[in-house]
Design brief:
It is a single chain. The chain is mainly α. It is about 50% helix and about 0% strand. The protein contains 6 helices and no strands. Helix 2 packs antiparallel against helix 3 and helix 2 packs parallel to helix 4. The radius of gyration is 19 Å and the shape is globular. The two termini are about 35 Å apart.
Amino acid sequence: AGIAPIWQSAFTDFLRAEAALLGLASGNPKALLEAGMRKSIDKVIGYPATVSVTVPAANVPSTTRIDNFVNVIGNAYDLAANNNERLTVIAKEFYVALWGNGVDAYNLYRRTGRPDNFQFTKVPNPGVFVRSFLYPSVHVNLNQNARQKPGTGVETPVFWDNNPANIFR
């Protein structure tokens, strides 16, 4: 419930599209991408009514406008030259649906390196990409078997991160 639930049904479709594209699950990636987009749009359009707010009709996209948008993204998916470009299309739309959910956006980028076509920091040398965080001090200070990550720790990948070190810019 609320404006920022932990997980929305659209998120599942985007993850399933990613997994199907990468051959890790069954399903049609493009159809799953479309399902995720439509669920996300429906959620946004339907939200004001859940909090007793009426949005002027002029500010609500028509079915035709939504269909046109979904078709533009579907065409971008179809025109992608390879699975990396198709994954970028899926990831970009997942980012849009994740508005306000920085954790899953960060995990998507950390997991896939996608999308790879957004604006990066304007700082010339921002430092290393944070691939994981240090363990909490209460954990390493109070647990005699725990060891803090070496160095700054942030460049240490998590157990499922098998991306090369230079995947992140």
